[in-house]
Amino acid sequence: MLFLKKIPILVDNYVWLLVNNDGFCIIIDPGCSETVIKIMNKKKWYPIAIFLTHCHFDHVLGVKGIIQYYSYPITVFGPDETKNYHVNKILKEGDKIIVLNRTFSIFFTPGHTAGHITYYSDPYLFCGDTIFSGGCGSIYKNQYLEMYNSIQLLSSLPDFTIICCSHEYTLLNLQFTMFFLPNDIQIQLYFKKMQHQISIGKATLPSYLIFEKKINLFFRTDECFLKKTLGMNLFSTGLEVFTELRIKKDFFGAKRD
Ligand SMILES: [Fe+2]
Ligand SMILES: [Fe+2]
Fold first, then answer.
1. 185-199 vs 170-180: helix axis angle to the nearest 10?
2. How many A from CA of 129 to the centre of ligand 2?
C-alpha cells in the first residue's frame, strides 16, 4: 500500500512523495534538499529513488544534497536533459520502471521543455510542469504543437487519475478560466472552495483529471464557445485555439514555470 504526500518548497513548488507502509519512498522533483530531508527524518521515511520530470532548477537542485545525505545508493531517474543532475537511469517514451513494487509508465511530454517526461502509475500522475490545476506550463522555444500533443495524451488517461503537478497556481489559473466563463456557477464555486483552502494554509492539489476536463480550458480547446470567445473561426483547429489561449495566458499573468 502506498500513500501520497507533498512538501511545499521555494515559492510555490511541491515535492511529491510516494511512501510505502515500511517508510520507503520515491521523491519526485526535489527542487531543494534541506526541507525534504528534514521532513523525511521527522517521519522516519527513507528515499530509495528520485524521479525527475525536466531540467529546471526548481525541480532538480535538491538531488545532490539528498543523495549525499544518505549512506546508501538512491536511484535517480530522469530524461536525458537532466543527465547532469546525478541521474543514473535515463528514461524515454514507452519505458516502464518498477519501484516500490509498482510499475510506472513513462510518457514523453515535451512543450514546457524539449525533453519533459511524466510518470504514471494508476492512479498517480507526476506531470511536473506539463499541466497544472486549471492551466498548463509555459511554453519555451515555441513548442506549442508539442505541448498540445502532450496535453492530448494526458487527457486520454482514466478520469480518476490523480494529478500531482509541481506548482500551486490554481487560483490564478481559475481566474483565467472565469475570465472566459464568467457565468459558470460550477467554476465559481470551485474557485471559492480553492480560495478557502489557500486561506487556511492548505494546498489545492492534487487534482483529478475529471475536474480538470471541466475547469481547465487547455483541455477544452475543441469547444465552440472558446473559439467564439477568442474571436476565432469555428473551423479553427484545437492546436490553433490552444496556441491563442496559451499566448493570452502569458499576458494574463502566468508565472514562467
Ligand atoms: Fe517548475
Ligand atoms: Fe519548469
1. 160
2. 5
**What structural domains and CATH numbers belong to the chain?**
2-252 (3.60.15.10)
Q: Which residues are annotated as a binding site for Zn(2+)?
A: 54, 56, 58-59, 112, 129, 167
Ligand 1 centre and the CA of 192: distance in Å? 25
- The answer to whether the beta carbons of residues 256 and 247 sit under 8 Å apart is no
Contact yes or no for 172/133 (Cβ under 8 A)? no
**What cell does 116 get?**
519533459
Span from the CA of 235 to the centroid of ligand 1 (angstroms):
34
Span 155-166, pLDDT tens digits: 999 999 999 999
pLDDT of residue 257: 56
Grid cell of 248 as nine digits:
493570452
Per-residue pLDDT reduced to its tens digit, 89-117? 999 999 999 999 999 999 999 999 999 99
Q: Read off the pLDDT of residues 216-251 as tens digits, 9 standing for 90 and up.
A: 999 999 999 999 999 999 999 999 999 999 999 998
User: Going by C-beta distance under 8 Å and a sequence separation of 6 or more, which residues neighbour residue 158?
Assistant: 122, 123, 209
CA angle 176, 182, 183 (to 5 degrees): 145
d(CA 176, CA 180): 7
Residues of the binding site: 54, 56, 58-59, 112, 129, 167
User: Which DSSP string do the residues of 199-239 spell out, in sequence order?
Assistant: HTT-----EEHHHHHHH-GGG-TT-HHHHHHTT--TT--HH
Question: 500513500: which residue's cell?
Answer: 3
Neighbours of ion ligand 1 (CB under 5 A): 58, 129, 166, 257
Residue closest to 102 by CA, chosen among 116, 123, 117, 82? 123
